[in-house]
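Q: What would this complex look like in 3D?
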Amino acid sequence: MPVITYREALRAAMSEEIERDPNVVLMGEEVAQFNGAYKISEGMLAKYGPKRIVDTPISEAGFIGMGVGAAMLGLRPVMELMFFSFYSVAFDQIFNNAANIRYMSGGLINCPIVIRGPANGGTNVGATHSHTPESIAAYHPGIKVVVPSNAYDAKGLMKSAIRDNDPVMFLENTILYGEACEVPDGGYLVPLGKASIMRAGTDISIIGHGRSIQLALKSADLLKAKHNINAEVVDLRSIRPLDVETILNSVKKTSRCLYVEESKPFCSVGAMVACLISDQAFDYLDAPVKRLTSIDAPAIYSPPLEKLQLPSVERIYQAALDTLK
Amino acid sequence: MTKKPSSSKKTEVTDLGYDARQAPINIKLGQDEKIALYRDMVRIRRFEERCLRSYQQGKIGGFLHLYIGQESIAVGCTSVMGKDDHIITAYRDHGHALAVGMGMNEMMAENYGKVTGCSKGKGGSMHYFDPSRNFWGGHGIVGGQIPLGTGLAYALKYKGLKGACMAFMGDGSVNQGAVHESYNLAALWSLPVVFIIENNGYSMGTSQERSSAGPSLAERAEGYGMNWTIIEDGHDVLAVRDQVGQALKLAHDKSLPSVLEIRTYRYRGHSVADPDTTYRDKAEIEAYKSTKDPLSVFQLSLLAEQTLTTELIQKIDESACAEAETSAQFAEASPYPSLEDIKKDVYWEIDNPADRKSVGALFFD
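A: Here is my prediction, written as structure tokens for the whole assembly.
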């Protein structure tokens, strides 16, 4: 099976959907002539032309809102935010217009838009460029939220997101863009809302999303090697819809849960998952659900300190041991 | 009416010889079409007067933004729409909705929060929609609808349709960043959109002089190299038709955007909750009503040319009042949405379970 990067997987997904559906268009800052700020869309302008691959001005409220309007009339725009952090500039268009238009029209209008881009810290770009807004996005009924942790999921989820008739926030990660794994050629789909058990285990459930999953897998190796602890690692992949069943089944099996994510702790996805577990699997727990997040402050610039602020293999390993005490 | 072509240095000029009735788009109007324009304006006014009564009776919640005084704009603009032309507006949307052909029953029921409303009671007075009539709302955030209107125009051009989008906003919208971003995109990509500023002089309670820099609102289009026009006689439905018809033609034939600033006036407060006593005086309202009321002016003109008779005027008025009264009765008699309805129309997938592709929970307790 071919081994391709997360970046190539996203490009393949968008290319296949552009070829499949004439209403799919990729728009964003520097996506066309510049070949993408992070080279996700490299070569796509040459292949698909300026009608399908469209450079926008630096004007997020304008072009995201324009994409919402175009989606209302049947296009399927894939809107690239150079950094997902710039979503805040388009907040009204995303969360008042895209999220609410179906509801406020009594179901007469739908909005099949994908808004995608990297949402992560760890690259020393400071607080303005390091937002991880998955819980903020998922807070809004009407919105779907996807956070792939690897190339295989990135491709399958992107294809599903583009075909979805509801607005999807697709949160990528610049540090993962160059990471590769086996990805089949051709058109497979990963459904939104289906978690993936990345590693089966019996002693603790390490549940999470995004790049933290890649770290958690290494932490799980350490737990096994040093303490013979069998950690189960569950990648949610989608935040909304959420695979509650897989979460609960894992926790019922292991009786302990650590949630790992790069977001800040207050009102995070982990907080929501801990609440669901408390509501629906309380009697199975041998310890409180623990969470491991970024340290609760704006993203610090200082490169060695930023490493400490974010989840790491060591921090996840320690948090798992704490949960098992 | 004043007009200035793009890149001209000339300031506004009032063309005193202008007669909208002689414009080509109006000369060809038949008697029935003129009567229909008049009737639509009367229907909007009577509907809104009935809405006001219902609001005062506590039947309508939240806000009620009345369009009374501005009827010539919605009616004039929509009367020149073709099958691929679309419109979108802000929260003062009753006039546009009736003008595109939505029914009073579904509108009044929406105001009452009833399940028979045009949005099943989920949107309210500010959020009417009817995509089957190319009417895309009904939007609550000042200026927030303008990027959407630009997107509708983008989609029309993308699909190769010979249509345009008329994106309406109030004078308060022009200072919002999203509006300027839309201007830039529309001009940059030659999108078939007509930005229509209904300038009633007040953004809520703040006058234009106290909120907006520059000599006029439309002139800001100059910075984007867009065509712009100021229609001083916004109360004249025929002048509105003429100017918006020209802007639509520019959009249809050359895929060029424009900004129209239509001077108008609202008789009621920003919303009915606005006591309307702090920022203007009654004399100002009365002065406008007595000389520029859109219904009276058009009525007099049609009487003079014997298109209307006093009998017909009375009949149209009675019929509009009866239609509005019926809509209030319909709304009153309609049921509210059910508790289960709260979670419908949120996700397409939930409403179309047979076609659902995702799995997992979309709602949470």
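A: To summarize the key features: The radius of gyration of chain A is 19 Å. The longest strand of chain A covers residues 24-28.
Q: Very helpful, thank you.
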